[in-house]
Specification:
Low-confidence stretches: none
Structural class: alpha/beta
Number of helices: 12
Order of helices and strands: EHEHEEHEHEHHEEHEHEHHEHH
Largest sheet: 6 strands, mixed
Number of strands: 11
Length: 270
């Protein structure tokens, strides 16, 4: 198995895994592979599902930094980190541990993550069953989009000061693409494109959705005096998405897409 950073690990079951990627932790619990986890890195803002079970696990860091002294105590045969922890990568490798970076760039990448998680936890069959279920949900959404000739315009916002959004080359951007939405951030350069008031007014999106630290629609409405003038503002189509789902490389994102699709259908039918 080779990750995006060129790290290689043997295709086999690992018995003692330290996991810092919340999405991989959720997948492990879903496929019954949680017994392979010896320690995790917990998130500061949002829970990892199923939270009542995950809260019982030992935490030896957060999603961007691992306590390397604690790593030694748990003698892992594999460490799975997320891309936010890449600064720890060389230090972990110098310590002699096998390490792989979980870095799903899009929905297909999440499907691959499910398969890899099944292999390393000895739950390959369960993982492939889950992958198939997620793939079918995605296919169903795509088929329904083919029937719809009209497309909504919108964006998933990263912040409001300045107003930035997720580009097409991101998991939220890929979600919008599969939902048949025209992402207004796609034509603006950068990984977190800045959407100027003039640009938002010109594009006139049907909806705006907040993620990351945005947990209140009022913050979005008050972020710019152009918001009440666009369709999203006039029709009150401004809402907040659950960041622990929409930004995470977990199987749960495919369920959230169905919820978001229903929300977007209501906007279309207004």
């Amino acid at each position: 198995i080779v990750d995006d950073y060129g790290n290689k690990i043997e295709v086999k079951e690992y018995k003692k895994i330290i996991v810092t990627d919340p999405g991989v932790i959720e997948i492990l619990f879903k496929i019954g592979g949680e017994k392979s986890i010896v320690a995790i890195a917990k998130t500061s803002r949002s829970k990892i599902y199923p939270s009542d079970e995950v809260d019982k696990l030992v935490s030896i860091g957060n999603v961007s930094n691992l306590n390397l002294e604690k790593v030694v105590e748990y003698k892992p045969d594999l460490i799975v980190i997320n891309s936010m922890m890449s600064r720890n990568l060389e230090a972990i490798k110098k310590m002699g541990y096998k390490v792989i970076v979980s870095n799903a760039p899009d929905l297909n990448g999440i499907l691959d993550t499910i398969s890899v998680t099944g292999i390393i936890s000895g739950k390959k069959d369960e993982a492939e069953k889950l992958r198939k279920e997620c793939s079918l949900k995605l296919e169903k959404i795509e088929k329904e989009n083919e029937k719809n000739s009209s497309k909504l315009k919108g964006a998933i916002l990263f912040s409001t000061s300045p107003m930035t959004a997720f580009s097409e080359d991101s998991i939220p951007g890929d979600v919008l693409k599969h939902l048949g939405v025209i992402n207004i951030a796609a034509n603006v350069p950068g990984q977190r494109p800045i959407l100027s008031p003039e640009y938002i007014l010109k594009e006139n999106p049907d909806f705006l959705a907040g993620a990351m630290s945005l947990d209140d629609t009022q913050k979005i409405i008050e972020a710019s005096n152009v918001i009440p003038k666009i369709k999203a503002g006039k029709n009150n189509n401004i809402f907040i998405l659950d960041s622990s789902v929409i930004l995470r490389s977990s199987y749960r994102i495919f369920d959230e897409m169905e919820v978001l699709r229903e929300k977007l259908n209501k906007i279309k039918n207004k």
